[in-house]
């Protein structure tokens, strides 16, 4: 039996399977998910993923929902802005025309 290469990195279990582009995308998602994110409550970078879409700050214990792989999504930011009542660019442009 020949020597086996040591498996390191996020794709350690995939080997040469699934194609390079899929493995690269997988690396990007997993490394972004694993890095510490900033807590919206206390501001410390201690947020880790508890389960799919559930994020928890290890410092203050704040638990919140977000994306499956990142705590904040682009759609979530837009929804928060709309909930606060911040005017959209379209409404600002139509007011200037009239």
Task: Explain what this protein looks like in three dimensions.
It is a single chain. The protein has a domain at 36-97: N-terminal domain of TfIIb (Single Sheet), CATH 2.20.25. Strands 1-2-3 form a three-stranded antiparallel sheet, with no helix packed on it. It is α+β, with helices and mostly antiparallel strands and 98 residues long. It contains three helices and three strands; from the N terminus they run αβββαα.
Quick structural overview:
The protein is an alpha+beta fold and 98 residues long. The protein has helices at residues 20-34, 74-84, 89-97, and strands at 47-51, 54-57, 63-65. A three-stranded antiparallel sheet has the order 1-2-3, with no helix packed on it.
